[in-house]
Amino acid sequence: MLSVNYNNLEKISDYQHLLHILNNQQEMIFCLQLDSVVTFANDAYCKFMNQDLSDLIGAPLTKFLSNSQGKKLLENISYVERTKKPISYEHKLIRLDDKVLWHRWIYSPILDRRGQLLQIQAVGRDITYAKLELERLRTSEKTLRYLFNSQNHAMFLLGKDQEILNFNQATQQLVQKIWHRKVGINQNIREYIYPEDLSAFVSDIDRVLQGEHISREKQLNGQDGTMYWFEFNFSPVYDEHSNLFAIALNLLDITKRKTIEEQIKKAVFNRATFWKICLIPPGLKIKTVSFSL
Fold first, then answer.
1. Is residue 263 in a domain?
2. In-domain check, residue 99
3. Is the dihedral angle over the CA atoms 268, 269, 275, 278 positive or is it negative?
4. In this structure, are 122 and 227 located in the same domain?
5. Is the same domain home to 20 and 126?
6. What does pTM read for this prediction?
7. Can you tell me whether residue 28 is helix, strand or coil?
8. What is the CATH number of the domain that holds 166?
9. Which domain range does residue 209 map to?
10. How far, rounded to the nearest angstrom, does the alpha carbon of residue 222 sit from its chain's CA centroid?
């Protein structure tokens, strides 16, 4: 983008060369007096306005704008006149064919050697593609967030230093149930690890940072004394360049499964004990075999 300083025009030997440069800019460029009268417009702006340069020069720009656009123009002129500082804003347009366009405009003061405001230069750029891409990313992010929060098990996204980068709603519920506190971004996950488990946890993290996937079962005690069993699953997370940048930690509540397993163990043990009592003759010694499920 080329910024025009009208005080230096007399120093430019080839004025036509300057106009050629301005007219070959992709940006839309025009200059105004403080009463909005146009003193310059490049080809890109003339094409956008669908006006000949001769129609624009010497006419107030508000003549070619809607009431709301004219009001915004005068507000920008007033701001630059008052502060002598640039102002930037984004403008949404809807064409006759219903196509949406986005422009970003920057209004800048043109000052003389004494710092007095002479005119205002405006430079506009079409940012429609960038806006559409941003909206697409936001929609994609919202979809991922819905998916993230629809999971009924706790999910953490951890940085390499075990700081919490993100978490879902189930995580907040779990932390409240076990630790009676609120989880927050940038907290360190080690705040939630029991001291006796910290060494093993750090070891697991180090292994994940080497690219391993780790799963282990752990019993946690709630603040109310309730005992819970969880399956901890650690996985490395890679970016689009295959660089490991985070760790995914999922906690599955397996308390019911563990309870059933314990009931089965007791039932098998009780049945074995019953038959041992019923079938072993008095005085007969047998070798006891221990087992676990």
1. no
2. yes
3. negative
4. no
5. yes
6. 0.47
7. strand
8. 3.30.450.20
9. 151-257
10. 33
Could you give the CA distance from residue 76 to residue 167 in angstroms, rounded to a whole number?
43
Average pLDDT for 140-144: 70
- Give the side-chain half-sphere CA count within 13 A for 44: 19
- With beta carbons less than 8 A apart as the criterion, state whether 77 and 36 touch: yes
Q: How many domains does the chain have?
A: 2
Q: Do 173 and 83 belong to one domain?
A: no
Quick count: other Cβ atoms within 10 Å of Cβ 44? 20
The answer to the question of residue 209 being in a domain is yes
Q: How far is CA 18 from CA 39, 52, 114, 140, 147, in A?
A: 15, 19, 25, 45, 55
Residue 143 lies in a domain: no
Sequence letter at residue 146 = Y
Token pair of 271, please?
């049945």
pLDDT tens-digit readout, 75-109: 999 999 999 999 988 888 887 788 888 898 999 99
Strand runs (DSSP E) across 100-153, as ranges? 100-111, 117-126
Residue with tokens 């109310």: 224
Summarize pLDDT for 263-284 with one digit per residue, the tens: 777 766 565 555 555 555 555 5
Q: What is the pLDDT of residues 197-249, one digit of tens each?
A: 888 999 999 999 999 999 888 888 877 778 888 889 999 999 888 889 899 99
11 plus 114 within the same structural domain = yes
Tell me which residue of 47, 8, 4, 48 sits closest to 22, measured CA to CA. 4
